[in-house]
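Hi V.,

You were right to ask for the full record rather than a summary. Here it is.
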Amino acid sequence: MKVFFIFGPQAVGKMTIGEIIADKLRLPLLHNHMTLELLQPLFGWTPATFSLSREFREAIFSKIAKESIGNGLVFTFVLGFDLKEDIEEFNQYKAIFSDKGIDIYFIELEAELEERVYRNKTEYRLSKKASKQNVAHSEKELLLANEQHRLNSFPGEIDEKYYYRLDVTKLTAQQAADQILEQFELN
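Predicted structure:
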């Protein structure tokens, strides 16, 4: 079983790169907005949305890990390294798999802010994430999060057996996915 956690700031390319990896390895993809977009029309952007989203994800991960369903999973998300609750959530998700002896491939993506602002407006992103279709609002959230939170790790902060950090500023999603798969010898 192969489990991938792909994380980084908004509009860095997590979902698109995750889709390519998932397709290549024949794994399902659970990107951050799949659970959020399900709940947002019911509860708005409230604590209930985020709490239920965490519960859904934990249930999905537990089912996959406990019953060895499928060949694994690709999961993408934003991680605030300065937010205690984000770190706790990350560690809970990680434990679901690692407690069962399942290896996790940790892929951290980074890109220059200007490139992320550009990617935030792409047609493909907007078609996959309804809540991002108000581009002005989405860009404002991206810039605010960039100012207020640390969305990439410090060098050496992540100490995992299978960890790879990649600057994707000048890479296509295909190039990035290829480098990731090559790094872990999964081509």
